[in-house]
Every structure is written in C-alpha cells, then in structure tokens.
Specification:
The chain has 185 residues and is α+β, with helices and mostly antiparallel strands. The chain has one domain: Heat Shock Protein 90, CATH 3.30.565. Helix content is 38%, strand content 23%. The chain has six helices and six strands, in the order αββααββαββαα. The chain has a six-stranded mixed beta sheet. The chain is globular, with a radius of gyration of 17 Å. The structure holds adenosine-5'-triphosphate (ATP) and magnesium ion (MG). Adenosine-5'-triphosphate (ATP) binds next to helix 1 and helix 3.
Length: 185
C-alpha cells in the first residue's frame, strides 16, 4: 500500500489539514551530492503540546476516536530510521507544526519519491481554501509552486475544476523534472 515517499508525505499533509492548517509549506531537497532526500512539512494548524509531540510518532497514538490506530507519523519515523535518515517533530499549540524527515537517497530500502504532482493534486482537492507552497530543490535547480500565485492568476476560477487540477499536476511534475536537469555546460 504505502509504497513511495509521496504517499507518506500525503499522510503528513492530511494531518496538517485535519489540524486546521490554512497554509502548508512543503520543502524537499533531493540531492545526489549529499546522498539525501530531506523534506519538511510546516503548517499553521492547531499544533500539539509537548506530551503529544513525544508520543505522536508512536504507532499506538492517535487522537482519532474511530477506526485504525494512528500510523502516519509512526510510518514516516520508521521509514526514516530504516533508510539511514532522521525524523523530528516540532510543534507549538495554537501556532503550528513542523515535521522534518530525511532518507539516504541511495539506501537500498529508500522508496521512490513518487508522483509529487499527483500528491499535491490530491491534497489540494480535499480543500481548495488551504494554500500550499512547494519548494523542490536538487543539486542543479529549484522549483517553487505556490497556490496563492496560481489563485491570483486564475482570478476566481476554482482550483477544483478538473482541467485546473490536471494542469497543476502536470505543471508540478514538469517543474520537478526541470529542476533535476543539470543545466551547466
Ligand atoms: N500537523 C499536525 N498538527 C496537529 N496535530 C497533529 C499533526 N500531525 C499529527 N498530529 C497528532 O498526532 C496524532 C498521530 O498522527 P498520525 O498521522 O500518526 O495518526 P492519525 O492521523 O491519528 O491517524 P491516521 O494517520 O491513521 O489517520 C494525530 O492523531 C494528531 O493528534
Ligand atoms: Mg495521520
């Protein structure tokens, strides 16, 4: 089921959405030189107290009252450890949450990054009023996507229009491919 990194990141984005975030900033550094894929997800949602932060990545912790036990953060932490990386949560009640994780790019257990355009599209689809900044950086270049800029350009047209969603997905995936290209002569 949870195969690529994008699927894991989507789980973390969903947590931010559930926490009432209005702006979510996702930064990804994808570097061969440093053998790392590092990402951070920062939100301005309701945050967690110290005790909750301590147990948030425990597989038996959830503030859910129904169905399965919480696994989003626990999975991410486990994956980071398995893949020679790191994991940290920093949160303040009433201010927001920062989740940071990394994996070694060349570790045999590290899954593919996956389809980030699709991931962003799915997250945006769950609530178009939430804004996102995506920053993707490689050894060669950088791509930045900001829904606030897109919304301004769309002048009132909904992000949820199917053509717009598909355009967003493709725009992001193209931007990412471009950032991966070595443009030095
Ligand atoms: N960004 C966040 N802001 C505030 N609280 C959070 C955030 N992320 C996680 N939490 C808290 O940590 C708990 C554990 O999160 P986790 O994603 O591991 O499980 P879950 O969201 O409860 O369940 P599932 O992911 O299976 O739906 C959440 O229930 C929530 O209380
Ligand atoms: Mg979750």
């Amino acid at each position: 089921m949870m195969e690529d990194l994008a699927m894991h990141i989507l789980e973390i984005l969903m947590n931010s959405i559930k926490a009432g975030a209005k702006l979510i900033t996702l930064k990804i550094r994808d570097s061969f030189n440093d053998d790392v894929i590092a990402f951070s997800i920062e939100d301005d949602g309701k945050g967690m107290d110290e005790e909750m932060v301590k147990k948030a990545a425990d597989p038996f912790t959830t503030s859910r009252t129904t169905r399965r036990i919480g696994m989003g953060l626990a999975f991410m932490k486990g994956l980071a450890e398995t893949c020679g990386g790191s994991f940290a949560i920093d949160s303040t009640v009433g201010k927001g949450t920062l989740v940071q994780a990394s994996v070694q790019k060349l570790n045999i257990d590290t899954p593919d990054l996956g389809n980030l355009g699709e991931m962003m599209m799915e997250s945006i689809q769950s609530d178009e009023n939430i804004d996102y900044v995506l920053e993707y950086e490689t050894d060669y270049g950088q791509f930045v996507f900001d829904t606030r800029v897109i919304k301004e350009e769309l002048a009132g047209v909904s992000l949820l229009e199917p053509e717009i969603l598909i355009w967003i997905k493709e725009y992001i995936n193209q931007g990412i491919e471009q950032a991966k290209e070595d443009t030095r002569q």
